[in-house]
Design goal:
Blueprint lengths: L8 E5 L2 E6 L4 E5 L2 H22 L2 H7 L2 E4 L2 E4 L12
Antiparallel strand pairs: 1-2, 2-3, 4-5
């Protein structure tokens, strides 16, 4: 079993709620924010299981910005996060 801390974003798109993990580029949906969050968790688990099955889990997580600390995969610490507009 893998232990991972991941970011999730929940937003409404038309009449559905979307759950999105930007660091792994995994998304799912539901009829409510809670359903979208639960569905996203299942989608992340399925994605990680698939990576483990083909043998590239560590590589995928490292390339996605994760580091393993005390047995838990966590996003590396961000010094800052900036939103910018490009014209």
């Amino acid at each position: 079993m893998i232990r991972i801390v991941y970011r999730s974003e929940i937003f409404q798109e038309n009449d559905m709620w979307v759950g999105f993990c930007p660091d792994l580029d995994v998304s799912s949906f539901g009829d409510t924010p809670k359903e979208a969050q639960d569905s996203l968790k299942e989608a992340v688990e399925a994605f990680l299981d698939g990576c483990r099955e083909i043998g590239n889990l560590d590589e995928v997580l490292t390339e996605s910005g994760y580091v393993q600390k005390t047995g838990i995969w966590q996003l590396r610490e961000r010094i800052s996060e900036i939103e910018a507009t490009v014209a």
